[in-house]
Write a structure and sequence with these properties.
Helix content is 49%, strand content 19%. By secondary structure, it is of the alpha+beta class.
């Protein structure tokens, strides 16, 4: 780089540094002003929205108070009586209900007692958390909520009590669109209500929203500027999260204010300032460059001659002009030119000899390279390039005293090293190939053994119950790996008894599968000695815990169903509680019995519990692989989602279809996520007592002793 160029570059960098510092200070000041403006805009929008929302809630509160007064004091918690009084109160106060679009009364379980709307709007306006808050606080609760995917409403919820005890909740609601219109008029800008996922539900100018397409932040306020590509307008988007009834957020309030004129003037001023600064910088640097070029022109002429001489061009001469330092440089360059001419004549002879050697070696190396694989060919070509290049200090450069023989000796030394290296690499590759083949064979054998073990494990699970008109039962299990630790079983034993068990062994894979097989066999064997579930589980626990060196354990639910009476005696040893659904009734959880997992500690006592299954009742047993299934967002399936699924099952639906529905719901929820645990599910529907005497078809002590007598040689 020339000296004048370095000076110009140095001054340019210094000027740019000063300019950058000034621009950064200005940008920092502008950012501070923007932050203060954003804080004021957010606070103003929040305050205006709260005032208008409070007015709407107070209006709905007056409507609710009118209904409460028309309803009068409540002295009975009977749903039918409460429903009749609500209808009468609504009819008597119909003139005062114009302020509300929806009127709804639900009990504490969110069962609808009254609604003035039909269709989808009949579902409860309040969710479980909001309803619990109203019942707990015993005061009016109002605010904004999203009652369906396409609407926001303003609600006011009032508790209804009998002798100080809340028995129901009165809810009045109104569409939030008029409130949003009032806000837009008062704020002076179009406004929109957006879900937490960024979807616009309602707004005063949908066309503007479609053109702007702003990215709405979740659960925090923000102010930003948008450029509309359609008409080149500048919009100021202010986003404020909107709270719901229980302290969370139900959506975002977004306003779009047209600031084209204001922000446009600011941007024009900024662009003009940058243009002036840029023009000044270019003019200053141009003047500096031409001044330095004229001052250094004599020195550059001398440098050009030296550069030509260094490249072997001896025909260039320097004009002996100037005086002082410039004249001294010219004399020195002339001496250097004479020496360069003499050196060039000497090197011409040496160069001819070197080229003859290079041509011979090049032909031989190219022939060798064509016989080698890619890496070896690349190495030989590198040697060839080194010989042809012939830089000083290269190990293949011929010694002046030995000439061509020295060059060939160095070449042979390099080739010997190449051959030894290729041989060693070949031996290593052969060894790695043999090891890979052996490993692949072992892996294939292990995979085949695991597949056989999986088929054996699934084959020992019961496929169907022997002919029995009292119950409809079906089970299904999908392991997380080739084999798993979950299992289920159901079998007839004794006189009119059906045993059903679902269990989950700690861990997964082969150890869990072995422990599962032992547990299943021993549990079924314990029914030879007792029909009480607690006795069977205690005996099982004592046997397994005695030699449990691996410290494994199993959680299980074991129940014994009397097929004639519907009585289910059961023990829950640290397992997920089953679900029971009676026709026309909500799903309920089977109470736990307080027992710990089996094989944790010997000598444990397990308590019995019982429940009565009515005709048509459904009992669903499952492992934690159902409720602890996770989707791709790491969200668990959960107990509530399973309970909702069971609630939607038809009263006459078969158990095979029920287990298929459970597994299908889990797969759809996972959305392709990897299965983390074994999934097991058993559905049992009690069909009532049979009309014919029960004949045991297997299992239990009686069947076992009968089989022993039949197969005995003495018999």
């Amino acid at each position: 780089m020339l000296l004048r160029t370095r000076l110009t570059l140095f001054l340019s960098i210094a000027f740019l540094i000063v300019l950058t510092v000034l621009l950064l200070a200005s940008a920092q000041r502008d950012e501070s002003e923007s932050n203060r403006f954003a804080a004021v805009a957010i606070a103003g929008q929040q305050a205006l929205w709260q005032v208008l929302l409070q007015q709407e809630v107070e209006d709905l509160n007056r409507t609710a108070d009118t209904l409460v007064k028309a309803l009068g004091p409540l002295d009975s918690a009977d749903p039918a009586d409460l429903r009749r009084r609500i209808v009468e109160a609504v009819a008597s106060a119909s003139a005062e209900l114009s302020a509300a679009d929806m009127v709804q009364v639900v009990d504490l379980d969110r069962n609808r007692l009254y609604s003035n709307t039909a269709g989808n709007d009949q579902r409860p306006l309040l969710d479980v958390i909001a309803a619990a808050k109203v019942a707990r606080s015993k005061t009016d609760v109002g605010g904004l909520l999203q009652d369906n995917p396409n609407r926001y409403v303003v609600v006011s919820a009032v508790p209804l009590a009998v002798r100080g005890k809340v028995i129901a909740i009165l809810t009045v609601a109104r569409d939030a669109a008029p409130l949003l219109q009032r806000f837009a008029q008062a704020y002076g800008a179009p406004a929109f209500l957006v879900t937490l996922r960024g979807r616009m539900i309602t707004g005063t100018d949908p066309t503007l929203w479609a053109a702007a397409q702003p990215e709405v932040p979740r659960r925090h306020a923000e102010v930003k500027t948008l450029d509309l590509a359609t008409d080149e307008r500048l919009m100021l988007a202010t986003s404020v999260p909107v709270p719901d009834l229980v302290g969370g957020y139900t959506g975002t309030l977004v306003s779009l204010r047209d600031t084209t004129e204001t922000l446009g003037d600011v941007r024009d001023a900024e662009q003009l300032g940058l243009m002036i600064i840029g023009a000044f910088l270019l003019i200053t640097l141009g003047w500096l460059f031409f001044y330095l070029r004229r001052s250094f022109q004599p020195l550059e002429s001398a440098i050009s001659v030296l550069k030509a001489l260094s490249q072997g061009n001896t025909s260039v001469e320097i004009e002996e002009t100037g005086d002082g330092e410039i004249r001294a440089i010219a004399d020195t360059v002339s001496v250097f030119r004479r020496n360069a001419i003499e050196l060039a004549q000497t090197n011409m002879e040496t160069e001819r000899q070197r080229r003859r050697q290079e041509r011979l070696i090049k032909r031989q190396l190219e022939a060798l390279a064509r016989t080698l694989e890619h890496d070896g060919r690349t190495a030989v070509m590198e040697d060839l390039t080194a010989i042809v290049g012939g830089s000083k200090g290269n190990e293949l450069q011929a010694d002046p005293e030995t000439g061509q023989l020295g060059l060939l000796a160095a070449l042979l030394q390099r080739m010997s090293a190449r051959i030894v290296d290729q041989h060693n690499r070949l031996r290593e590759l052969v060894a790695e190939l043999r090891e890979s083949i052996a490993t692949r064979a072992k892996l294939a054998g292990l995979q085949q053994e695991l597949e056989i073990a999986r088929e054996l494990q699934l084959s020992i699970l019961p496929k169907e119950l022997p002919a029995c008109e009292n119950v409809d039962i079906h089970g299904r299990m999908t392991p997380a790996k080739e084999i798993g630790g979950d299992f289920y079983d159901f079998f007839l034993f004794g006189h009119g008894k059906l045993g059903v068990v679902v269990a989950d062994v700690s861990g997964k894979g082969v150890p869990a599968a072995m422990f599962m097989a032992i547990t299943r066999t021993l549990l079924k064997a314990t029914t030879l000695f007792s029909e009480r579930p607690s006795d069977c589980v205690e005996l099982l626990n004592d046997v397994i815990a005695t030699e449990n060196d691996q410290m494994m354990f199993v959680t299980l639910f074991f129940g014994v169903l009397d097929l004639q009476t519907g009585r289910l005696d059961y023990v829950n040893a640290g397992h997920n509680p089953p679900l029971v659904k009676s026709p026309g009734q909500p799903v309920r959880i089977v109470p736990r019995t307080g027992g710990m997992a089996v094989a944790v500690m010997g000598g444990q006592h397990y308590a019995d519990a019982s429940l009565i299954l009515g005709e048509g009742d459904l009992l669903l047993l499952y492992t934690d692989g159902v409720t602890e299934a996770f989707d791709i967002d790491e969200v668990a399936f959960g107990d509530q989602r399973l309970a909702d699924l069971v609630q939607d099952i038809g009263d006459g639906q078969g158990t095979t279809a029920i287990t298929d529905d459970v597994f299908r719901a889990v797969r759809e929820f996972e959305r392709g996520a990897t299965q983390a645990d074994d999934i097991t599910c058993v559905a049992l529907r009690y069909l009532g007592p049979s009309q014919t005497p029960f004949q045991s078809s297997g299992g239990g002590a009686a069947s076992y002793m009968r089989d022993r007598r039949i197969s005995s040689p003495a018999a």
